[in-house]
Amino acid sequence: PDTVTFLTSVLKLRALNLGREGTLDELIRLLDKYDSLNDEETIQLVNLAADTGNLDWLMENLDMLREKAQFVPALLYEIGAESVERGKAAYGEKVFTELVEKEPYNADFWTSLGFAQIQLGNFGGATESADMAIAIDPSFIDAIQLKAQLLAKQSAPDPLSQLKKMTLTYPDNTSIAH
């Protein structure tokens, strides 16, 4: 019996460094062997595809990937995050909008939507997203950072007071300086 797992195969593909097309060919072959992917398998698939320049392929084949993912929100979140990180914020906004519609009480989804909206210059939408995230979880550091970033970008009267509040609340979090 074949004891090689999906995760082992993804790890091997990463190590082989086959380039964009070679990795994509192998990922397609690998996906043909599996009917279902758990959360970690989904995450590793998306990360490998994005790292090898195959994010567009993921976006184009989202319907097929949805059928294989045991937990579709994990798939959408990973593709959305990779999209925003790699300069495809419009696609990320689309994905995170779908996520907040399906799970409106998830502060992380609202925050991620807000970061996509900032990249698109939609500061009004990003402010609404940040406010929703903070209303859901007032101590969610990513949402507070999003709000502070918005205040700074919009030349709000006192963005430094927000940063000071965050620093006092989370003194060990060095990412606040970013």
Give the overall shape, derived from the CA principal axes: elongated
The assigned structural class equals mainly alpha
Order of helices and strands: HHHHHHHHHHH
Which regions contain 5 or more consecutive residues with pLDDT less than 50? none
The count of strands amounts to 0
Largest sheet: none
Portion in strands: under 5%
Query: Residue share in helices?
Result: over 70%
Ends distance: 50 Å
> What is the average of the pLDDT values?
91
Instruction: Using the CA coordinates, give the radius of gyration.
Output: 19 Å
Polypeptide structure, described:
With 178 residues, the chain is mostly helical. 74% of the residues lie in helices and 0% in strands. The protein contains eleven helices and no strands. It has helices at residues 6-16, 19-33, 39-51, 55-60, 62-68, 72-85, 89-102, 107-119, 123-136, 141-153, 159-169. The longest helix has 15 residues, at 19-33. The model has no long low-confidence stretch (mean pLDDT 91).
Summarize the structure.
With 178 residues, the protein is mainly α. The protein has helices at 6-16, 19-33, 39-51, 55-60, 62-68, 72-85, 89-102, 107-119, 123-136, 141-153, 159-169. The model has no long low-confidence stretch (mean pLDDT 91).
Task: Give the topology.
Blueprint (H helix, E strand, L loop, with lengths): L5 H11 L2 H15 L5 H13 L3 H6 L1 H7 L3 H14 L3 H14 L4 H13 L3 H14 L4 H13 L5 H11 L9
